[in-house]
């Protein structure tokens, strides 16, 4: 079945540090890939997405590139801020009539001033 | 305007009780979902409805019964609550068949069973 593996947290960084959160997936066909973010006490918000190989999703300084050859969708940001502290979820969704999102286990990021 | 809303936000109840959580979306989407997030933040799909028809029913106890009175609403009723049901339940919606495929999540309902 489909699965998403993302790096275990927690991740603690200082402000302005470089961030990478690794994500790899297993799925048949050509899934769409997503990063969602959950701020403390809130629901999930879509951060970025990519729907086909070599697509790059970007938003709020975060980027991730859909790499089919390595089945990866790593999240990066060049300079994190305290306000980026949250839980980050990598997810995939197969096309066609398969509707569900399959999530990774989430990575807690804490950014210290 | 809130896109996906859930009520209540917090729910504290005793074991054995029956409770319902409501979800409404004003995005005009045709598909709605219930997810469960456990204490370790792991998210798992429970149900999905498309145009009021059940299309996903993961391995969930029969005590959980979703109901979709119309495309904009998906409620979750839980019978005979157990301690292990304590979690955060998220509703989501999407419009299938369009390239976006993005699911929009509600703020969550934090259920605590004592």
Order of helices and strands of chain A: EEEEEEEEEEEE
Principal-axes shape call of chain B: globular
Termini separation of chain B (Å)? Answer: 34 Å
Residue share in β-strands of chain B: over 45%
Whole-number mean pLDDT of chain A? 92
Tally the helices of chain A: 0
Estimate the helix proportion of chain A, in percent.
under 10%
Q: How many strands, what sense, and barrel or not for the largest sheet of chain B?
A: 7 strands, mixed
Question: What low-confidence regions of chain B span 5 or more consecutive residues with pLDDT below 50?
Answer: none
Counting DSSP E segments of at least 2 residues, the number of strands of chain B comes to 11
Distance from first to last alpha carbon of chain A: 41 Å
Largest interface: A-B, 23 and 27 residues
- The 3D shape of chain A can be described as globular
The helix/strand order of chain B is: EEEEEEEEEEE
Low-confidence stretches of chain A: none
Oligomeric state of the chains present here:
heterodimer
Short structural description:
Chain A has 113 residues and is an all-beta fold.
What distinguishing features does this structure have?
heterodimer, A: about 110 residues, mainly beta, 4-stranded antiparallel β-sheet, B: about 110 residues, about 0% helix, globular
How would you describe the overall organization of this protein?
The complex is a heterodimer of chains A (about 110) and B (about 110). Chain A has about 110 residues and is an all-beta fold. Chain A contains no helices and 12 strands. In chain A, strands 2, 5, 6, 10, 11 and 12 form a 6-stranded mixed beta sheet that branches. Chain A has a 4-stranded antiparallel beta sheet with strand order 3-9-8-7, with no helix packed on it. Chain A has a two-stranded antiparallel ribbon with strand order 1-4. Chain A starts with a strand and ends with a strand. With about 110 residues, chain B is mostly beta strands. Helices cover about 0% and strands about 55% of the residues of chain B. Chain B has strands at about 5, 10-15, 20-25, 30-35, 45-50, 55, 65-70, 75-80, 85-95, 105, 110-114. In chain B, strands 2, 4, 5, 6, 9, 10 and 11 form a 7-stranded mixed beta sheet that branches. In chain B, strands 1-3-8-7 form a 4-stranded antiparallel beta sheet, with no helix packed on it. In chain B, a hairpin with a 2-residue loop joins strand 5 (about 45-50) and strand 6 (about 55). Classes of the chains: A mainly beta (about 110), B mainly beta (about 110). The interface of A and B includes residues 34, 43 and 100 of A.
